[in-house]
Amino acid sequence: MVSLKNWDNKTWLSSKDYIKSFSKFLIKNSNLNSKSEILDIGCGRGKISGNLYNELKLISKPTGIDIVDHKDKDKRIRFKKSNGLNFLDKNKKFFDLILIKQTIHLLKIREIKKLIKLCKKYLKPNGVIMVLTLDPYKNEIPTFKLMNSKLKKSLNRDKKIIALLEKNNKISKTKKFIYKVKILKSKYLQMINDRYISILLEFDLNQIENGVNEINSNFKKRIIFKDKLQCIIISRNV
């Protein structure tokens, strides 16, 4: 799996307002309570699951797994350095919520099928899997030309993944999470340099530099857009 070290590091994704807003979305669209068991696949620094621990006054710490063991990970989660498939192959615990936020596109189709099958195996009767991807139809992520081309290809694959999930699973509902982002252009340029999104990982330094210059020319000092996610909610029974 591709390693993303900066996706949730000092961006709007790590802001208290975003985390609070997203946590509220998760609680509203699930059956969580203080006794709930939560698994966050691709948790990053675990700030979202950590916030859920506080919001719900959870008895048990959420379990967060990621292939990168960040030094500044949230202490309110039980962290395991692993990927979803390896973890669930050895798992014996059942969960009320399995969260897969903006990571499923990094897997091959056969891996996605196996992952969802394993997730359903370890769901409690009223539990749900929540799979979130960038909205592939009305995305507003600020891009430069080459980045936009890569993003379109990635979003087209997301459409296929969503179609696969809807075909092979019992979908209880589909929701959208929308967060209005206001960010200084200088900060967003630093995020580009840090390759905060997976489509930037294969770009060389010259391509990144050209992209930064392009965004610097095309956007105002303050960038405003809507970060839109599509959420597929899957129950245990097919």
Written description of the protein model:
- The protein has 238 residues and is an alpha/beta fold.
- It has a single domain, classed as Rossmann fold (3-Layer(aba) Sandwich).
- Helix content is 37%, strand content 25%.
- It contains 7 helices and 7 strands; from the N terminus they run αβαββαβαβαβααβ.
- A 7-stranded mixed β-sheet has the order 3-2-1-4-5-7-6, sandwiched between helices.
- The two termini are 27 Å apart.
List the helices and strands and how they pair.
Layout: H1 16-28, E1 38-41, H2 47-55, E2 63-66, E3 78-81, H3 84-90, E4 95-101, H4 109-121, E5 123-134, H5 145-168, E6 171-184, H6 185-193, H7 205-218, E7 222-235
Parallel strand pairs: 1-2, 1-4, 2-3, 4-5
Antiparallel strand pairs: 5-7, 6-7
Helix pairs in contact: 1-2, 3-4, 6-7
* CATH architecture designation: 3-Layer(aba) Sandwich
What is the strand tally? Answer: 7
Radius of gyration (CA) equals 18 Å
What percent of residues adopt helix (DSSP H or I)? 25-40%
CA(first)-CA(last) distance? 27 Å
Mean pLDDT: 92
Unreliable runs? none
**Strand portion, in percent?**
15-25%
So how many helices? Answer: 7
Q: Note the main sheet.
A: 7 strands, mixed
Q: How would you describe the shape?
A: globular
Question: How many structural domains in the coordinates?
Answer: 1
Order of strands, main sheet, comes to 3-2-1-4-5-7-6
Helical/strand content category: alpha/beta
CATH class reads Alpha Beta
**CATH level-4 homologous superfamily:** Vaccinia Virus protein VP39
H/E element sequence: HEHEEHEHEHEHHE
